[in-house]
Write a structure and sequence with these properties.
By secondary structure, the chain is α+β, with helices and mostly antiparallel strands. Helices cover about 30% and strands about 20% of the residues. It has a six-stranded mixed beta sheet with strand order 6-8-5-9-7-10. Strands 1-4-2-3 form a four-stranded mixed beta sheet, with helices on one face. Strand 2, helix 4 and strand 3 form a beta-alpha-beta unit.
Length: about 350
């Protein structure tokens, strides 16, 4: 049997991968990436690996590494063409994950996976990453953009990041200082941040019957997409002055799993009594829970419900800590205390 040879040769572009588009996307954001560099960076954009001088990071420095994504928030960003917001959200999510162990960020690496690479869209994602890095004092030192038709549908993309930070060994927050009676101080979120989007999307599209450009109920000047794409807040600047304060015993970043899934990870085996009614109510959660008829305990597992960060503070210092946080422009609220009489989280209301 004779196999016919095709009359025309194939290229990588014929298979759905456009190398030129990837180079175009990177060229668009090189200035924004270089703007994050500091004297520790030893290699330019485009090197095979980022080079970062590690000398003089502290007397007994410990590196803290974390990796995460922004979940199905990317589906909304792709639907409305607002790509920069999820880049910022990714960086600031990872900052908070390192922060709660006492670490300040050093550098960040990203992965963007797409089905078809549109240079201006990828550039917007990378610019969002770079701007968030610059605003928070860390270096965007490297990353990867992968065009993979057949893995990602055209029009869809994935976004993942890795952050490395540093903390002095004596100032690591690992739960070892936590004791019964410590007070819980919350800092508010501004919405979903980067978790709960699969449930939120289903409620919005199936139960509420809304499109992304419709006005969001209860929000006078924001569309559904505006509310859903609010930036994941960074708590770095708020908490930096307190990272070496001996009265700060632990912190919890409230992400997937909510308060019940994240707070116990920081308590060194103890439990916590938490008053949900102390958390300022956010309209977005009121609307989603009502329209989706979401059970209250399920809502507090799927969403952050208005809590972005929880501080675990020595009881004798809680009032002073609240005062300092408020003076810095934060909006702290007392929401319970650590207990050795309960396991995990016990709701007080």
């Amino acid at each position: 049997m004779t196999t016919q040879r095709p009359s025309q040769s194939l290229s990588y572009r014929d298979a759905g991968v456009n190398i030129d588009a990837a180079e175009d996307a990177l060229d668009r954001v090189k200035p924004a990436i270089r703007a994050t560099f500091n004297s520790r960076v030893l290699a330019d954009v485009g090197s095979f690996g980022g080079l970062f001088r590690a000398d003089n990071l502290g007397n007994n420095p410990v590196l803290v590494a974390t990796a995460d994504g922004v979940g199905t928030k990317v589906r909304i960003a792709a639907s409305v063409g607002q790509f920069g917001s999820v880049g910022r959200c990714l960086v600031q999510h990872c900052i908070n994950d390192a922060l709660v162990q006492g670490a300040e960020p050093l550098f960040f690496l990203d992965y963007v996976g797409v089905g078809k690479l549109v240079p201006e869209n990828v550039a917007a994602v990378l610019e969002g990453l770079a701007n968030a890095c610059a605003d928070n004092g860390l270096v965007l030192i490297g990353g990867e953009t992968a065009e993979m038709p057949g893995v990602y549908p055209e029009g869809e993309f994935d976004l993942v990041g890795t952050l490395v930070g540093v903390v002095e060994r004596e100032h690591i927050l690992d739960g070892s200082r936590v004791k019964a009676g410590d007070q819980l101080i919350g800092l508010p979120s501004n919405g979903l941040h980067t978790n709960g989007y699969s449930l939120a999307r289903r409620i919005i599209l199936d139960r509420m019957g809304l499109s992304w450009l419709d006005p969001f109920p209860g929000e006078s000047d924001e569309s559904v997409a505006d509310v859903m794409l609010r930036n994941h807040l960074s708590y770095l600047r708020t908490m930096q002055p307190f990272l070496k304060d001996s009265s700060l015993h632990a912190m919890a970043h409230i992400t997937g799993g909510g308060v019940a899934g994240n707070l116990p990870r920081t308590l060194g085996g103890l439990g916590a009594q938490v008053q949900r009614s102390a958390v300022p109510k956010l309209n977005v959660f009121e609307q989603l829970v009502s329209a989706g008829q979401v059970d209250i305990d399920e809502a507090w597992r799927a969403f952050n419900m208005g809590v972005g960060l929880i501080l675990v503070v020595d009881s004798d210092a809680a009032i002073e800590m609240m005062s300092k946080l408020a003076a810095s422009g934060a909006s702290p609220f007392r929401m319970g205390e650590v207990s050795d009489a309960v396991e995990g989280v016990a709701w007080l209301d």
